[in-house]
Amino acid sequence: MTIDTSVTKNRNGFGKIGLVLLLLAIILAITVSVYMLFFIPDPLVTGTDGFKILSTDNTVTLKGENLKSLEISIYQEGKITDLLKDSTHVKEKTYALQIKPKDLKLSNGRAIVIVKAKAGIFKKVRYEIESVIDTVPPSLEVIRAPSIVNTGSGGFALLRAKDADFVYVKLGERVFTAFKVGSEIDLETEPAPGYGVEPYSAESNSSRKVANTYYVFFPAPFDSKDGDVFYAIAEDTAGNRKINALPTRINIKGSKTSSIEIGDSFINTVVAPMLNEMNLPDPASSFKKVNEEFRQQSQDKIIEVAGNTKSEILWDGRFLQLKNSKVMATYGDERTYFYQGENISSSVHLGYDLASYANAPVGAANSGIVTLSEDLGIYGNTVIVDHGMGLMSLYSHLSTILVEPGQEVNKGQLIGKTGSTGLAGGDHLHFGILIHGYEVSTL
Length: 443
Ligand SMILES: [Zn+2]
Fold this sequence. Notes:
- With about 450 residues, this protein is of the alpha+beta class.
- It has helices at about 1-40, 265-275, 285-305, and strands spanning about 45, 55, 60-65, 70-75, 80-85, 90-100, 110-120, 125-135, 140-145, 150, 155-160, 165-170, 175, 180, 185, 210, 215-220, 230-235, 240-245, 250, 255-260, 325-330, 335-340, 340-350, 350-355, 360-365, 370-375, 380-390, 390-400, 400, 410, 415, 430-435, 440.
- Helix content is about 15%, strand content about 40%.
C-alpha cells in the first residue's frame, strides 16, 4: 500500500517536474540569449602595446577577457598577414604570440597590427596598433680596452656603437653603463680621460675621426673569478642587440692578510652604540652582525647611489689624496677578526685608510657633485662625490660633514673633517674611488 502510493506520486510528480524543467530551460535559454545579445561585457584585449616595436624575435603576451573569438593580423604595404585566429569560450585567456618579422616576410618600417575580438552574438571590438618593425641590430666596435685588469681594480674602454639606445659592459649580472661622448673624437690624439686606469697601447692605424663613441669604466670586483668575461653590449629600444667580448682578462690578485684582535673597549665604545645598545651580552656575534650585515647594507646603499651618476665628465685631471696623510691601510686587505683568541669574523677592506691629525680638513679629490652626505652605517658620516660617468669618490668616518647633496664642489674644496664615526678604531679618513659603486684600488 505504502509502496503503491509512492509510485503513483512519483509518476504524477515526474510529469510536473518535467514540465517545470522544460519551462526553466526555456527561461534560461531566453535569459542566455538576451544576455549574449545585450548584457554580455565587451570583449577586452590587453597587452597590445607589445606590437608597437617589433624586433627580430618577439613574444607578445596578450590577455583576452570575455572572448568568443580573436583574430590578429598585420598590414604592411597593401598585404595582410594573419598572426592568430582563435575561437574560445573561456572568461580569460592568455596568448603568447611569437612574431619573427623575417619569417613573415615583413620589411623594416611601419606596419599596422589589427586585433579583432568578439563576445556574445553582436559584441565586438577592433584595435589598430601602429607598429614599427626594426630588425637591424646596432653596430658595436671595441676601439680600446685594457688587456688585463686586476681584481679590485678598474678598466676603461672606448666603444663605438651605431643605432644603439643603451650601451654597457656586463660582468655576470653586473651592468656598467657606457656614456656617449658628445663630439667626434680623434683616435690618434684622444688621450685617456683624466683617470689613468690602464695606459693605452698605441694604435697602428692613422688618425681617424669617429662619432658615436662611448666611454665606459668598469670594475673587476673583488669576488671576480678567473675566466669571467666582460661583455660589451649595444641595444636598441626594439630589443635588438649586438654583443662583443672585451679582450680584457681578469687577473686574480693576491691580497695582504692581517689579523685584528677585537677588545672589549672597542666592543663597548664602537660596536654597542652602532647597535643602539650599551651592554652586549654576546660581543662576538654582535661584532659579526655589524661587520657583515651592516657592511652589506652600507655597500648596497652605495651601489644604489651609484645609479645617480651624471652622464658627462665632471672631473678635471688627477685625483688628489688627503693632504699630509699617511696610508695606514690599503685596498683589498683581508682582515680576520679575533675576540679572546677566537676567529669571529672576516672582511675585505675596500679602500684606503689615510691618517693625518684629528679633525683634519678633508678636500674633494676632484670636482663633481655631492650625491650623498649622511651617516652610512659602518662607514659613519660619509660624503660621496659624483665625478660623472660612473666615477665617484667616498670619504668616511668624518666627524663633521660640510656639504649637502646636490652641491657642486671643486677639486680640493673642503667637504668635511676626519673623525672616527662608524666602525673605526681611531681618527682617520677612509677614502675610496668608486666605479659604478664598487670601490677600486687604482687612482
Ligand atoms: Zn677604511
